[in-house]
Amino acid sequence: MSQTEFVVGIDLGGSNIRAAVVSQQGEIKAWAQAPIEAARGVEQGIQRIQNLIRQVMEQAGIRQIAGIGFGSTGPIDRKRGLIQNPYTLPGWENVDIRTPLSRAFDAPLIMENDADAAALGEAWLGSGKGTSRFALVTVGTGVGSAFILGGQIYRGMDGEHPEAGHQVLDPNGPPCYCGARGCLESLASGPAIAESARRLIQQYPNSSLARLHQSGQIIEATHVTEAARQGDEFAQKIIREAGCYLGLGLVNLILFYLPECIALGGGVMKNYDLFFPHIQQVLRQHDVVVPTRRVRLVPASLGNKAGVLGAARAIWLELKG
Amino acid sequence: MSQTEFVVGIDLGGSNIRAAVVSQQGEIKAWAQAPIEAARGVEQGIQRIQNLIRQVMEQAGIRQIAGIGFGSTGPIDRKRGLIQNPYTLPGWENVDIRTPLSRAFDAPLIMENDADAAALGEAWLGSGKGTSRFALVTVGTGVGSAFILGGQIYRGMDGEHPEAGHQVLDPNGPPCYCGARGCLESLASGPAIAESARRLIQQYPNSSLARLHQSGQIIEATHVTEAARQGDEFAQKIIREAGCYLGLGLVNLILFYLPECIALGGGVMKNYDLFFPHIQQVLRQHDVVVPTRRVRLVPASLGNKAGVLGAARAIWLELKG
User: Fold this and answer.
1) What is the mean pLDDT of residues B264-291?
2) Average pLDDT over residues B93-100
3) Residue A1 is assigned to a structural domain of this protein
4) InterPro entries from the entry (chains A, B) (predicted)?
5) Cβ of B99 under 8 Å from any chain A Cβ?
6) Comparing B30-44, B74-88, B265-279, which segment has the lowest mean pLDDT?
7) Of A133, A160, A255, which has the smallest distance from its Cβ to B258's Cβ?
8) Which end of chain A is more exposed for a tag (fewer CB within 10 A), N or C?
9) What range defines the domain where residue A281 resides?
10) Chain A residue with Cα closest to B296
């Protein structure tokens, strides 16, 4: 094994690949991102990843790394180091990431689900620092979750990772590909918020969203949050409903995990302040059999660095035990 | 510390107190139970517990014990060894159990919530034996839960224990004292099943339950399970609905914990076979983002011995590390 004091953390999403050179203390020596353009094929994709790693190593002025932590949009086969995600990365099924990258950089590679990596990063250096039980819930195109217990990623049977975003909250809710009706993702993700707005818009002809809709614009979640921020009552109602469902989802999370801290991340949570009062109200209402009031609820704090830092932490944990 | 090879495990419920002398391998050398009659007061109650411990020690032919594991209906203050349960044990608030029993038997005492103790017993010697992640869900007057991770009771912040029975499953469901509408307990506990039957009985005048109701009998959950077993369609419908909600509750549990095995215990689950097909169907329907199909679902197997064995295990873990 190399004696270098740095590892590379990778964060592979559906659109972008990010890489950072990270010390054992969590210092970022170099950082870069580039589009992955997954549809151009696996071979070119792996080449892009390698180029990005070389780029950050050069920026950091190092010629060797002790290991690679690779956080990827799932599903993945963690043990074998495979990406199996034709949904987000078209054509990427059974893609062996470990073999080519380990060979190219003469370094061990550990792979983690991206939600797990982001949570590990937040628990190490961000919103969950110093906690023994920390949950991250990401609200964006989907709703993801991860749980960090004693500084380690919580894994279920066969290494499976939790999916609190698909918990059932309302059996009369919208259908989801997960098999449920009314799972959290179907009620409070970005697309769910947009869909709610589109479904109810006829009833609120005076809303600014209705005017946008009439102008031919397809309503997205960002339109709803913008309108809510500008005082549009219909948009505020949509946010309130999603916020209440998020609150119920967090009540359930607390009933199972009883964490000291929950952080909310993901694209939709850039508007954390809009959702927070509704979530908080639901948590207070359910503060009876478990102390929901004592759980610290915060926005995730590492932004687009959480994934690379968590991936780096994962390989450091592997290397140093 | 005493050099004896036995401990005493206690299981204190709302009606009965059970005690067993248990070896480090889980062998029960003596067992007894007696009514607690909590309303007669704390002092007499503690006396009854002491008498029962002396009785089982005599039966086992031992004069000393290495420790006492005390499982109790909650809420309890685990660290201070207090019972704080005026709900189930009238008048028992801030009752110090540790001091008098430790003194009387010259032995350390560890206290656990009864659901945690039962789960620890099942994981040690029963339905969860050999698993790394084991959940017990008890369905009776309430719905309780516990999670055993790596052979130890999973505890949340400040030692709090999970309460999966109060997870929200249907925000349009019945109100519960926990602050929720439509928590699992409000939808699938014994009283919830009875309440469903009483609410809908007018619509099913040909049901055997309707005839029972007309005769002046107050319908309880046991009447519903009996009628279902005899082919009554209305009763079967009630069981199916409760079974489906239990299934949804277990789907959520799997999404958070991903256990190898879930055991169902408690009074209502004496009719496990009636509920199982409905639970199973819901689990299969949700086998998409997590492998619900791979989770082993079984009835709890230690019956009324789970609590004393788990309490014994808890003190053995404390003594031997």
Assistant:
1) 96
2) 95
3) no
4) ATPase_NBD, ROK, ROK_cs
5) no
6) B74-88
7) A160
8) C
9) 130-300
10) A157
User: Is the Cβ pair B167, A132 closer than 8 Å?
Assistant: no
| A187 and A152 belong to one structural domain | yes
> CB–CB of A171 and B285 under 8 A?
no
- Is A309 an interface residue toward B (CB < 8 Å)? no
Note the pLDDT tens digit of each residue in B16-52.
Answer: 999 999 999 999 999 999 999 988 999 999 999 999 9
**Segment B178-187 long-range contacts (CB within 8 Å, at least 24 positions apart):** B178/A286, B178/A288, B178/A289, B179/A285, B179/A286, B179/A287, B179/A288, B180/A251, B180/A286, B184/B143, B184/B245, B184/B246, B184/B249, B185/B142, B185/B143, B187/B242, B187/B245
Judge if B68 and B139 occupy the same domain: no
What is the reported pLDDT for B3?
A: 56
The string of pLDDT tens digits covering residues A84-124 is: 887 788 889 999 999 999 999 999 999 999 999 999 999 99
> Over 70: is that where the pLDDT of B185 sits?
yes
Subunit contact B253:A256, Cβ cutoff 8 A: yes
> In this complex, do A287 and B258 lie within 8 Å of one another by their Cβ atoms?
no
Contacts of B252 in chain A (CB under 8 A): 167-168, 252, 256
User: Do A239 and A269 reside in the same domain of the chain?
Assistant: yes
